[in-house]
Amino acid sequence: MPGFEIFGDEERKEVNEVLETGILFRYGFEPSRKGRFKAVRFEEKLKKITGAGFAHLCSSGTAALSTALAACGIGAGDEVIVPPFTFVATFEAVLSAGAVPVFSEIDDTLCLDPEKLDSVLTERTKAVLPVHMCGAMARIDEIRDFCRNRGLVLIEDACQSVGGFFNGRSLGTFGDMGCFSFDFVKTVTCGEGGAIVTNGKELYQKADQYSDHGHDHLGGSDRGADDHPVMGLNYRTSELHAAVGVAQLEKLDQIISLQRENKKIIKEALEAYPEVSFRTIPDASGDTATFLTFFLPDENKAAQTAAKLSEQQIPCPYWYRNNWHYFANWHHLKQMKRTARLPLEVLQQVPDYSKVRLEQSDAVMKRALSMQIMLSWTKEDIENRIEKLHTVFKG
Ligand SMILES: *Cc1c(COP(=O)(O)O)cnc(C)c1O
User: Fold this and answer.
1) Exposed e or buried b for every residue in 260-277, given b needs 16+ CB within 10 A?
2) pTM of the full predicted structure?
3) At 151, which CATH number?
4) Residue where a domain stops, chosen among 252, 271, 286
5) Could you report the per-residue pLDDT of 315-372, keeping only the tens digit for each?
6) Does 331 lie in the same domain as 289?
7) Which of 159, 185, 326 to mutate to test the pocket of ligand 1 (most atoms within 8 A of CB)?
8) Ligand 1: does its nearest atom lie under 6 Å from the Cβ of 90?
9) Domain CATH code at residue 285
10) 218 C-beta neighbours (distance < 10 Å), count
11) Segment 257-283, tens digit of pLDDT
């Protein structure tokens, strides 16, 4: 999965070009920068890959989510529907916007179940924030239709799924905005980084402004001459990070095709076992293949299998019990542990998350194990892995 596995001369060359000029800032300094604009190049490339009209690089995927929420007008007291299986950044961004994360069930796509959205809808619902988990897509066409029919904002958290498509359309481009992460363990890395994509010019402008203290970037090379249509924050990234990302994005096709090859071989080996079934992927041809997720018949079998795989040095995250990507393990959220009162507490609108029950999601996650697909595996590594899988599953 992670782009860091193939960090090489290409990344070094791009970074060195920035170091040569010493201009680590993405804006201005034209006389010294020799025409080198790494963040801009990254954005151009990301637009090409996704087909989005606009892209904007931020300092992280979390920053991209916060920027997207701000640009889409999500704030105090607004309810945002999110899945219980995601990285914590998804609900953190909603909370920090002063909005209320409302958890809705996932199905065996591991993503939001479009048919369950209605059951958590209230008059305060403002947006749906589906997450394309583990490199593959939600039933995003149905979620989009749900949002359209009810006039809701749709923001996609595609942080784990750059390069993923559904029916030929890039993930992140189905709604108002899409967010990507380029942190160190993602498919493509900047070291730290994230981005929003959108087809809305005004949304893009708001995101561009919000992520840089409200600057409209129309003052030419004099930053002081910029106007400030809105207040914002600093969610910029540096040219050094962008430079790494430029080289990494060039490798995206290669990364995904290698992942697909590796995943296919492992999946075929597991298909021999009738007790194993697989995650539903609504469009398998658009899977980025960062993970192979499979289901065991019940919770006991899943827990036992996870332990046996781990003994064989094949760790497969059992998210339900031992990983904090799932709601069941977010004790800090359930106890509302925070450094200070949250904006939404001022509105006295804090739900008691310890009382939230997600039975359908639990039933999915209790049976699910995921194997991360690595780029660095050799043929031998894969053969060994398959042999060990047979040891575990025959036993
Ligand atoms: C990684 C990730 C994020 C946050 O990205 P960072 O760049 O680490 O801030 C958000 N959502 C999901 C689903 C992620 O996997």
Assistant:
1) bebbebbbebbeeeeebe
2) 0.98
3) 3.40.640.10
4) 252
5) 999 999 988 899 999 999 999 999 999 998 988 888 999 999 999 999 999 999 999 9
6) yes
7) 159
8) yes
9) 3.90.1150.10
10) 10
11) 999 999 999 999 999 999 999 999 999
